[in-house]
Predict the 3D structure of the following.
Amino acid sequence: MSKSQILTHAKGQQVVLQLDKINKIFNEGTPLANHVLHDVSLQVSRGELVALVGTSGSGKSTLLNSMGLLDVYSSGELRIQGHLTQGMSEQQRTQLRSESIGFVFQFHHLISAFSAIDNVLMPLMLRFGKPNKEQTEYAKYLLNEVGLAEYADKPTNRLSGGQQQRVAIARALVTRPALVLADEPTGNLDTQTADEVFDLFERFNVEHKCAIVIVTHDPRLSARCPRTIRLTDGRIVYDGASADLPNEFTKTV
Amino acid sequence: MLFVNSIKHLHNSLWIEWRIAIRFLADNPLQTLLISVAISVGAAVIVFITALIMGLQSNIIDKTLGTQAHIRIEATQQHNNFSEFPDGKYVWAMESPRAQRLQSINNWQEVRDALDQNSVFNTVSPLISGPAFATKGTARASVALMGIDPKRYIGIINLKDYLTDGRFSIEASDILIGYQLAEDLGLQTGDKLRIDAGDNLQSVMNVAGIFELGVRELDSRYVYTSLKQAQTLLNLPGGITILEIKIDDVFSADYWAQRTQKLTGLYVQSWMESNGQLLNALSSQSMTTQMIRIFVAMSVIFGIASVLAVSVVQRTREIGILRAMGSSQQQILRVFLLQGGLLGLAGSLLGVFIGFTLIEIFNAIDAKLFVIRLESSTMLSAIFIATLAGVLAAMVPARRAAKYDPAVAIRYV
């Protein structure tokens, strides 16, 4: 897989996420230093649905956290919607994160003290304070889209795992982000529920034209993403159409 | 306009912090309840002990000052005058202090009128006081003859309140005597009493009323009569020996005594000088109270801090989620500061209520004890300080929460 192919893939489209030679070293400068990401370069364009695969410890989650500005990478260039993130203050990173990125995590990670609708509205409330009518309507629309309209005012700990994950997806979309990052969103769900949740990702990917990067262990799901990036020991070993993923990789997934 | 916008923005952004703080507290009702009760016990102790000591002290001061003036002005003491020494010569002189005979304050009417002009002085009352003997039959007692201007003197000691028998009258030959003296001499109201001030100055008086000031010394010695009678008996026609003053703020007595001394050149003494021991006792009592309050407040602060520290750990993952959802470090900080403040507020509201109840119970138990009044300023300051303490206590845990690395926090299980 050469770099030219990646560029071809993204050609003519709006680039949402651009990584150039990203390195991540934990405990840098100490005897415990652990080089997790090696010169990772990739681009994700508007409307793409990308599976990020690899064995445990290959650096997928670290890469995702770096892309989501949750973690600071050690070197390289990272641009989100053209904004260079080097040298940004914590405040600027927080702002960019809240404006451009939506997150979905493996353990749905809702805030149990709040109702489903409040969880969906949380990113907006953190940014703008009390939600206005339009924002509330949009949150209701999203909850309806994920099939949970009647659970809006229920505390989230009364919902099943699949329902909670659907609330989390609605929450990730409420700010109309350009990029949604999902860290094993179906890892905790049974096959049928996982498929339903993945359907939602596909639908929102098409309807909202947001770029989605999904970290997954599930080969069935990664096969449903048009594009797969495979990471081994912190290096990209494959980046291209999922259908063309060499068999040697699919076996080990 | 920019200012209005930024205020609006602040209000809008604080809205969610409030919401999260309240939800976090409500989400863990047992923990919130326990720490609120702990805070309220602390606040109740502080409120109760403050009110108790304040009540006790004001009671002691009231009792002490109930039977004495705040400021006393006396004639300057008599001293020896020396003729001028011739130049270049040393003079050795042995001086024996002068005997202080009873003497009047010069121009006391003018001094009184001048002092009357000062609105700080509630009452300026002339008094002539000197020694005498009271005899009934063969029984004899030494007394202090007090000649007073009744209209003014009730502003110093309201004798009407202390009367146990008879009526308040010092007209003509009417006198008021203490109940102890009445017992000693076997007197009742209406009885006659001979007052002998020496130098063949004596008069037979009519006991119009008997009072009980509650101070044995005064109840066995004071004999109140009119200025004119006392002046005649003590052989100081038209004179008085003391001007007594009452003021509103009893603790400013020293200051006004000094000013009056400078103004009149007379010998002026405040109650604070003549009750140094008492004031000393009161101030060490206040210091002890202050210590108790500080230690209780400290335990409350550490209680809030430890509960919030636990809460921050419990909420690690949720803090990580909030950060991922776009909350700033400051927002997380404020969420926990608000929780501290809310705990302080809720706990102290409850605590003030408990303290108030304790005081009501104390007051109801025994009416003979002094009455504690709980000032609303005490309550308000307790609530204010507790809320502030809650915010302060939350500082360390809140900073820790704000500093969490979201990538790590979010994986916390």
Observations:
- The mean pLDDT of chain B is 87.
- The longest strand of chain B covers residues 121-136.
- Chain B touches chain A through 30 residues (CB under 8 Å).
- The CA atoms of residues 139 and 318 of chain B lie 91 Å apart.
